[in-house]
Specification:
Blueprint: H1 3-21, E1 32-35, E2 38-41, H2 79-90, E3 96-101, E4 105-121, E5 127-142, H3 152-161, H4 163-166, H5 168-182, H6 186-193, E6 202-219, E7 228-245, H7 246-249, E8 257-275, E9 278-283, H8 309-333
Antiparallel strand pairs: 1-2, 3-4, 4-5, 4-8, 5-9, 6-7, 7-8, 8-9
Length: 342
């Protein structure tokens, strides 16, 4: 470069440097930082402008995970629905009415009026029948979820604890028979049996009792389809009943006749667990009927429980067919929590 021009150029450059260096430097207050001659936002204090940082996708680590539970479809069945289903399976009309309500369950039963064998005059073919309310079908609804039958053990415990509910008619038979010779027609019938013309004035004046228990057991037959129990209860009560008549009692306190009587308490039920809170029981109520001649001869000398094996097994075979049909119905329609319709 020409020396004459070099001096002016250097002087001009020096002036420009001085002018630039004299410009004021901007101040950036937190959370801003200085970049070049301007400020930018740095909220996370990493010395990088937030606008220059790559955009991060939100993390799901700390967010709660929502798991959707499968919703069970609620199905509601009333006692009338169950009544209709049982009737269809058994091929007959079944009318269930409320029987009683206990702490943890409700009991429903179908009721029929039928002649029932209560007793026999020992040493004769004279049998005592009475029209009674019988319950061939029984339904139990467990109302407390804490008592639902969740496995075989809970079913066995339930049947054992409530055995008397299933054989209630049998247990009532003894009480009814004793009422009949104390306050009912049996004293008159004893007089007639003895050929007395004054039967209408016959009166009970005392008795003695001897009882024999032949069966009182619960078994649980193995099935491939569900829980079943068989409840058996047979008790024979033998009595010596003392009777007299009104006229005789005015002069004699001793009985005129002492008649030996025997009472049969018979109960046999097949119990089916339909669902965790529905139990169905089918009962035999025709033991010792007019058609079952052999069953009426239960009071012969030397009677043992083997005498009852044949009729018990025969009635069991009839009941078990219906019970298995009910189990199939329950598998198809009631294997969920039963809701009692209001």
């Amino acid at each position: 470069m020409n020396k004459k021009l070099l001096l002016p150029f250097l002087l001009l450059s020096l002036i420009l440097i001085v002018l630039v260096s004299c410009q004021p430097v901007p101040r950036c207050n937190n959370p801003y930082i200085l970049v070049g001659t301007s400020c930018c936002l740095d909220q996370n204090d990493n010395s990088i402008c937030d606008s220059d940082e790559p955009e991060l996708k939100p993390t799901l680590v700390d967010e709660p995970q929502v798991v959707e539970e499968p919703q069970e479809i609620a199905q509601t069945f009333t006692i009338n629905d169950l009544q209709a289903d049982i009737g269809n399976v058994l091929g007959k009309n079944v009318f269930l009415t409320k029987d009683n309500e206990l702490d943890t369950m409700r009991v429903y039963s179908s009721k029929i009026s039928k002649l029932k064998l209560l007793g026999t005059y020992s040493g004769s073919n004279f049998h005592y029948y009475k029209i009674m309310t019988l319950k061939p079908e029984l339904i139990i609804e467990i109302t407390s979820p804490d008592d639902y039958l969740v496995n075989l053990k809970s079913f066995k415990d339930f049947v054992s604890e409530n055995k008397n509910v299933f054989v209630q008619t049998a247990l009532n038979s003894k009480e009814i028979f004793e009422h009949e010779f104390k306050e009912g027609n049996l004293p008159e019938l004893i007089y007639r049996f003895r050929g007395e013309p004054t039967s209408e004035t016959a009166k009970y004046i005392g008795h003695s009792e001897r009882s024999s228990v032949f069966y009182d057991e619960i078994t649980f037959p193995e099935t491939i389809s569900g829980n079943i129990a068989e409840v058996r209860s047979i008790k024979v009560n033998s009595y010596k009943v003392n009777v007299s008549d009104t006229k005789r009692l005015t002069t004699f306190s001793k009985p005129k006749y002492t008649q030996e009587l025997s009472n049969i308490n018979y109960g046999q039920s097949i119990v089916v667990q339909c669902s965790p809170n529905i139990v169905i029981a089918l009962s035999v109520e025709d033991y010792g009927s007019a058609e079952s001649v052999g069953e009426k001869n239960y009071n012969f000398p030397g009677l043992t429980k083997d005498f009852f094996s044949t009729p018990l097994n025969r009635h069991f075979n009839l009941l078990i067919k219906d019970a298995q049909a009910l189990l199939k119905m329950c598998e198809q329609r009631y294997q969920f929590t039963y809701i009692r319709g209001r």
